[in-house]
Amino acid sequence: MRLKELLDGIEFYQTSESIKDINIVNVEMDSRKVEPGSLFVCIEGYTVDGHNFLQQAIDKGAAAAVISRDVNVSGDIPLIRVRDTGRALAMLSAAYYDYPTTKFPLIGVTGTNGKTTTTYLLDTIFEKQGKKSGVIGSIQVKIGDETFPVNNTTPDALELNRIFHQMQKKETDQVIMEVSSHALDMGRVFGCDYDIGIFTNLSQDHLDYHKDMDDYLRAKSLLFAGLGNDYHQGKKKYAIINEDDASSDLLKRSTAQQVLTYSCKQDADIMAKNIMLSPAGVAFNLVTPIGTVHIKTGLIGMFNVYNMLAASGAAIASKVDLDVIKEALENTKGVDGRFEPINEGQDFSVIVDFAHTPDSLENVLQSSKEFAERKVYVVVGCGGDRDRTKRPLMADVAVKYADHALFTSDNPRTEDPVQILDDMTSHLTEEEATFEVIVDRTEAIKHAVKLAQKDDIILIAGKGHETYQIIGKKKFDFDDRQIAREAIKEKGE
Ligand SMILES: CC(=O)N[C@H]1[C@@H](OP(=O)(O)OP(=O)(O)OC[C@H]2O[C@@H](n3ccc(=O)[nH]c3=O)[C@H](O)[C@@H]2O)O[C@H](CO)[C@@H](O)[C@@H]1O[C@H](C)C(=O)N[C@@H](C)C(=O)N[C@H](CCC(=O)O)C(=O)O
Ligand SMILES: Nc1ncnc2c1ncn2[C@@H]1O[C@H](COP(=O)(O)OP(=O)(O)OP(=O)(O)O)[C@@H](O)[C@H]1O
Ligand SMILES: N[C@H](CCC[C@H](N)C(=O)O)C(=O)O
Ligand SMILES: [Mg+2]
Fold first, then answer.
1. Of the candidates 431, 360, 391, 428, the residue with the CA atom closest to the CA atom of residue 202
2. CA dihedral 270, 276, 282, 288 (to 10 degrees)
3. H helical segments located in 255-383
4. Ligand in closest contact with the CA of 154
C-alpha cells in the first residue's frame, strides 16, 4: 500500500520531510516484528515507550515511522508526527485493512459484568436466524465454528483490524465484540464503525487503571458517544441501555443515536415480566415493541435475565424475529466457565464461575444461596496486578453469603499471593464468619470437595474458562474444572 494513501486515515500530521510515495508492506507497533518496508508506530505503553525502539525498527528496515515526540535516531526515513500515536495506529490499521468495520454490522458490548455472556447469547440468536457471526472477547476469537486464542478481551487496534479483515473475508454477516473500558480509554477501538452499542452494568472493577468510578464510567460512555451518525446513508444506530443501572441516565445522554432501554423493574422498551427463578433455570415474559413471548431457559440467576434482555434488544434492533430470539434463548447451552456445573455423579453440586468482581460474586452467590438445600461453600481469590480495593469487598461478599469461604490464589501475577490474601481478609474476624485461607488453589478446591456433604453447593469463582494460572510473568496449565473433577473422583475412591 502507498504511504500517502495510508496517511489519508489520520489527516493532520507533520512530517520531517515531504512524504515520498513509498510502498508500505505492513503497519507495526512492535519493533521486534518490523520487516523491511514496515510503517512503525511508536506507542507509549505502560511498561515501555515505543519511541525507545525506533532505532531498532529503522535498523530492521522500517520504511517510515509515526511518532508523538522528538526522537534522536539515525537513518533517513520519513517521521510522521501526530498528537496521539494510539489513535493514529487505530486509523492507520483501519486504513491498511480498507476500513473493515464499514463493511458489516458491528455490535459492541460494554459494562463491568455480562459482556462475554451477552455476546454469546447474541451469537446463538443470529445462528438460529441462519447467520454467521464473528465474536471477539475474553474467551477467544470465533469466526463461525473456527476459534482462535486471545491475549486481551479487546485486542489492540492493529490486531483488531486484522481480525475484522479476516472475518470480512470469511463472509461473516455481523461481528459481535466485547469492548473493555481499557480499550475505549486507550483508543484501541478508535475509528470502529459501531452500529449497536450495548451497556450491561457498572460496578467496581479496574480501579488500578481508572482514577475512580466516574473515570471508569466516562471510558464506558465513549462507546455510545462514538456511535457515528450515518442517517444520510439510511443506517440506523442504536444504544441498548440497562435502565435499572444507576449509570443509565448518563449513558443515554452520551449518544446522539436511537436508544432502546431494557429493565426487569420498571417501564422500558424491552422488559422481563413475571420472572420465575429456579435451580433449573429462569422463565419470564419478554415484553418488546414487536410483541411478547414467554421464555423458559436453563440459564440460572437474575443476572442472566439482564443478559438475555440486552441480547434481545440488539437482536430486535437488528430486525431479528421474536420467535427466533425465543427459540435461541430457550436452547442456549450457556457459556464456557460461566455457572458451569461439574458433574461426576457426586451428591453435591460443584459450579465453576468467572465472577471476579464484588458485584458478580454477589450475584452468583445470591443465586446459589437461594437454591441451596444445605451449605454453600465458595472458593475464591483475587488477581494480582489488578484493582486492590476490590479485594476486601470480594471477601466481604464471600463471608456474607457463603456458609464457609475458602480464600485462595487467583492469578497472582507479579504480586505475592500471601499479600493478596491478606488484603482480602485482614479486616475479617473469625466471629463474623467461618473462613480459611489456603494459598494453593488446587489444595483449596480439594479441601472444599472434601468438606462438602449431600446437597451442598461449592462455587469455585474467578477463573471460569481460564486454562492457566499466571504466576510471576509465566502462564502455567491450570483448569478449575479439571481439578474439581479429579477431587470429586478422589473423594469417591
Ligand atoms: C495496561 C494494559 O492494558 N497494557 C496493554 C499494553 O501493554 P503495555 O502498555 O505494557 O505495552 P508496552 O509493553 O509498554 O509496550 C509499548 C509499546 O512498545 C512496543 N515495544 C515494546 C518492546 C520492544 O522491544 N519493542 C517495542 O516496539 C510495544 O509493541 C508497544 O507498542 O498493550 C499491550 C498490547 O496491546 C496489551 O497486551 C497490554 O495488555 C495487558 C496484557 C493487560 O493485562 N491488559 C489488561 C489490563 C486489559 O487491557 N484488560 C482488558 C479487559 C478487562 C476486562 O475484561 O474487564 C482487555 O481488554 O483485555
Ligand atoms: N449481567 C450480569 N450482572 C452481574 N454479574 C454477571 C452478569 N452476567 C454475568 N455475571 C457474572 O459475572 C461473571 C463474568 O461474566 P461475563 O464473562 O459474561 O462478564 P464479562 O463482562 O465478559 O467479564 P470480563 O470483564 O472479565 O470480560 C459470570 O461468571 C457471572 O458470575
Ligand atoms: N479481564 C479481567 C479478567 C480477570 C480474571 C481473574 N481471573 C484475574 O486474573 O484477575 C482482567 O484481566 O482484569
Ligand atoms: Mg468478558
1. 360
2. -10
3. 302-317, 322-331, 358-371
4. 1
pTM above 0.90, yes or no: yes
| d(CA 92, ligand 4 centre) in Å | 27
Phi/psi-derived region of residue 345, left when phi > 0, alpha when psi is between -120 and 50, beta in every other case: left
The Å distance, Cα 140 to ligand 4 centre, comes to 10
Q: Set out the domains of the chain in order of their start, with CATH numbers.
A: 3-96 (3.40.1390.10), 100-330 (3.40.1190.10), 340-492 (3.90.190.20)
Q: Which atom of ligand 1 is nearest to the CA of 40?
A: 27
> Do 169 and 100 meet the contact criterion of CB atoms below 8 Å apart?
no
Q: pLDDT tens digits, the chain, 493 residues: what are they?
A: 899 889 888 877 788 666 767 899 999 999 999 999 999 999 999 899 999 999 999 999 999 999 999 999 998 899 999 999 999 999 999 999 999 999 999 999 999 999 999 999 999 999 999 999 999 999 999 998 999 999 999 999 999 999 999 999 999 999 999 999 999 999 999 999 999 999 999 999 999 999 999 999 999 999 999 997 665 566 789 999 999 999 999 999 999 999 999 999 999 999 999 999 998 999 999 999 999 999 999 999 999 999 999 999 999 999 999 999 999 999 998 899 999 999 999 999 999 999 999 999 999 999 999 888 899 999 999 999 999 999 999 999 999 999 999 999 999 999 999 999 999 999 998 766 689 999 999 999 999 999 999 999 999 999 999 999 999 999 999 999 999 999 999 998 8
Q: Residues whose CB is under 5 A from ligand 4 (ion)?
A: 115-116, 138, 178
